[in-house]
């Protein structure tokens, strides 16, 4: 297929681009490089357009013969979303609205959308399946939920089909260790822990140890970025036009506490990672663990890199490469 990947220079986007190329798809990346990296792009055309620029967006995608779009481009930091809500609504909701309008004008009828576990808010069950109530407790999650509603409405009123993939905690790096996570500023637990160990980041602060969990720290479902990439390949390949709307949760179904993740990082690094306990971070639910049975059943998705030790090891391999070869 000929596919447009928005945000293809970002973390999950760039791993998905590689997976799509490996499957023989023809890929064009659209990215404004605000948070993505040119080095993460491999052998594919880059269209440098901002999704908020509707005119240039349409101009650059029409008459290109795209069969579908995978849409990763978004603002994605919970804390930032609290401080800059309008920026998040403009990018995530406004940008996606422009993209859908441009796709319709260019007669492109298939979209795979990067959604998030943040749409669920505080869980009311141990495992979160697709039907779990959606009451986001941060602006980032709100914007992603609004986009899901938008896509459902468009699918119900036209031949446009959309599949929303709700990631739990994306983590790890590709096997070759030459592609991985690099955010500025970095806010995520695993890279922050590893950078503290490598001396390339700040000292690690653990955000709250008074949550109602076994060791008092937040529990998350960490899913390897290459497993997310394979879900995107499956989603676009299985998708047909005709006004279909689907949602899938993507996780391993195993929860790890912040302290357990730090222990896995220490094992990968081979050294202790000192941390201090800080206050809770606003917008963090105590526990988020997926039921991804629907994706396994309907997308034949079979995540390969579920063990937290392997995820931490791949992230550490990448961190060493990044420090030695790119920084
Ligand atoms: N966390 C932490 N220190 C950090 C970064 C994250 O204690 O420097 C915690 C955070 O409060 C959450 C978990 O680690 O409970 C995962 O956070 P992350 O930002 O990696 O992903 P999120 O769950 O926000 O998508």
Describe this structure in words.
The protein has 327 residues and is of the alpha/beta class. The chain is 39% helix and 17% strand. The chain has 10 helices and 14 strands. The protein has helices spanning 11-22, 54-61, 78-83, 85-105, 139-157, 189-198, 225-238, 258-269, 293-298, 308-326, and strands at 2-6, 26-30, 45-47, 68-71, 110-116, 161-167, 169-171, 204-207, 219-220, 222-224, 245-250, 256-257, 275-278, 287-288. The strands form 4 sheets. It has a 7-stranded parallel β-sheet with strand order 3-2-1-4-5-6-11, with helices on both faces. Strands 12-9-14 form a 3-stranded mixed β-sheet. It has a two-stranded parallel ribbon with strand order 7-10. Helix 1 (11-22) links the parallel strand 1 and strand 2. It is globular, with a radius of gyration of 19 Å. It starts with a strand and ends with a helix. The mean pLDDT is 95. Bound molecules: uridine-5'-diphosphate (UDP). Uridine-5'-diphosphate is lined by residues 78, 169, 187-189, 192, 204-207, 218, 220, 258, 281, 284.
Percent of residues in beta strands? 15-25%
Structure classification: alpha/beta
- Structure ligands: uridine-5'-diphosphate
Biggest sheet layout = 7 strands, parallel
Give the strand line-up of the largest sheet.
Answer: 3-2-1-4-5-6-11
Number of DSSP helical runs = 10
- pLDDT < 50 runs, ≥5 residues: none
The coarse overall form would be: globular
Radius of gyration: 19 Å
- The overall pLDDT, averaged over residues, is 95
Give the strand tally. Answer: 14
- Summarize the amount of helix as a percent range: 25-40%
């Amino acid at each position: 297929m000929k596919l447009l990947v928005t945000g293809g220079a970002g973390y999950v986007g760039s791993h998905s681009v590689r997976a799509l190329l490996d499957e023989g798809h023809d890929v064009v990346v659209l990215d404004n490089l605000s948070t993505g990296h040119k080095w993460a792009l491999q052998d594919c055309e880059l269209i440098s357009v901002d999704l908020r620029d509707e005119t240039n967006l349409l101009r650059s995608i029409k008459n290109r013969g795209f069969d579908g779009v995978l849409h990763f481009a978004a603002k994605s930091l919970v804390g930032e979303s609290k401080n800059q809500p309008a920026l998040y609504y403009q990018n995530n909701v406004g940008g996606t609205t422009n993209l859908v309008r441009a796709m319709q004008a260019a007669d492109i009828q298939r979209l795979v959308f990067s959604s998030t576990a943040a749409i669920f808010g505080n869980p009311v069950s141990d495992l979160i399946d697709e039907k779990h109530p959606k009451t986001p407790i941060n602006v980032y999650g709100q914007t992603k939920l609004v986009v899901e509603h938008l896509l459902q409405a468009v699918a119900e009123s036209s031949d446009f089909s959309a599949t929303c993939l709700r990631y739990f905690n994306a983590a790890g790096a590709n096997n070759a260790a030459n592609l991985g996570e690099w955010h500025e500023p970095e806010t995520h637990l695993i890279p922050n822990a590893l950078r503290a160990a490598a001396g390339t980041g700040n000292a690690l602060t653990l955000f709250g140890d008074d949550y109602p969990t076994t060791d008092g720290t937040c529990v998350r479902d960490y899913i390897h970025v290459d497993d997310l990439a394979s879900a995107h390949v499956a989603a676009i390949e299985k998708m047909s036009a005709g006004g279909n709307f689907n949602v899938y949760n993507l996780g391993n179904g195993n929860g790890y506490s912040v302290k357990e993740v730090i222990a896995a990082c220490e094992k990968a690094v081979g050294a202790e990672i000192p941390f201090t306990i800080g206050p809770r971070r606003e917008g963090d639910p105590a526990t988020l663990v997926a039921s991804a049975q629907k994706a396994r059943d309907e997308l034949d998705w079979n995540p390969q890199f579920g063990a937290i030790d392997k995820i931490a090891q791949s992230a550490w391999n990448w961190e060493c490469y990044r420090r030695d070869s790119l920084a």
